[in-house]
Amino acid sequence: MSTPLRIWLTGASSGIGLELARQLAAAGHQLALSARRAEPLQQLAEQYPGQLLVLPADLTDAASLQRAAHDIGAHWGALDWLILNAGCCEYVEVDEFDPALFRRVMDTNLHGNVECIAAALPLLRQGNQPRLAAVGSSVTFCPLPRAEAYGASKAALRYLLQSLELDLAQWGIGVSLISPGFVDTPMTAVNDFPMPMRIDGQSAARRIIRGLERGQREIRFPWLFTLFLRLLGNLPNGLRFALTRGLARPASNKESS
Fold it and tell me: Oxidoreductase as a keyword (predicted)?
């Protein structure tokens, strides 16, 4: 990419977010990095003096997101890409069905991203070929056991972005939904069930960046795994139920940063 972009990336302290930050910074882009933990962001910023803004923020704290957006506006005046990468995952135990778990997951994966979009939209409207992107999940292609909260939050995010694409077109803002399979990150490291076709964070980041540069509406990877889930999800309900009932057991609760 010939012209450096002004990019706000959330969840940049670990996993896919940290790999995205490294690769985008190495490509010469200007980055505003947000996460709850500032130390990993500061360490990366020291490698690229004057190129990276460290803006600690929590998706569940709307005021911190507004402050971050204000600082971005003060430094750059506009935003070219917003990449919503931060998220969390907790698995549901139906014998201890906990509404609070659902609220926690929804507060981060849906409501927090809505707050971030609201803070960033005025800046995106001033950007150069602006693009809004968010990391969803391939779990939205097919319901899986114990993923009630996580899957519902990512399904809501899918609908949100696909609907926003229609309304943001009037301002020339493109929208990309990122639908990964299993990626080797701290969030998936606690899983104690098989994760087929898992890829590393560096490969995931490369595929995301390539898809964003191409302006893809949906960035799916790895393609064979996501294709399998899409086909599985489109089977007759009885057959889908029989094939998926025993998947992803057992597992441990987990949450990202």
Answer: yes
Burial 128-139 (b: 16+ CB within 10 A, else e): eebbbbbbbbbb
Q: How confident is the model at residue 248 (pLDDT cuts 50, 70, 90)?
A: low
Distance from chain centroid for Cα 90: 16
Distance from C-alpha of 191 to C-alpha of 176, rounded to nearest angstrom: 27
So where are the chain's domains?
Answer: 6-244
pLDDT band at 249 (very low <50, low <70, confident <90, very high): low
The pair phi, psi for residue 176, each rounded to 5°, is -130, 130
Q: Which of 211, 186, 219 is nearest to 201 (CA)?
A: 186
Helices 99-106 and 148-168: crossing angle in degrees, nearest 10, is 30
Q: What is the CATH number of domain 6-244?
A: 3.40.50.720
